[in-house]
Amino acid sequence: MIPSKIKNNGFAAFLILLVVVIGVLSYQNARDYSELKAVFELDKEELEQELTTIIEDYKQASYKKNEYSLRLKDELEKVVQLRDSVKNLKEADYRFIRYYRKRTKILIEENHKLFEKINYLSSINDELLSKNDSVNQALLFKEHQNTKLFSINNQLNKERQVLKEKVAIAEVIEISTIKAEALKKRKNGKYTSTTRSEKVNAFKIEFDLLENKVASPGPKEVHIQITDNNNNVVAPIKEPCSHNSKKIQCSDVFITDYNNSQISIVSFVNINNKINAGVYHINTFVNNINVGNNSLALK
Question: pTM of the prediction?
Answer without folding.
Answer: 0.48
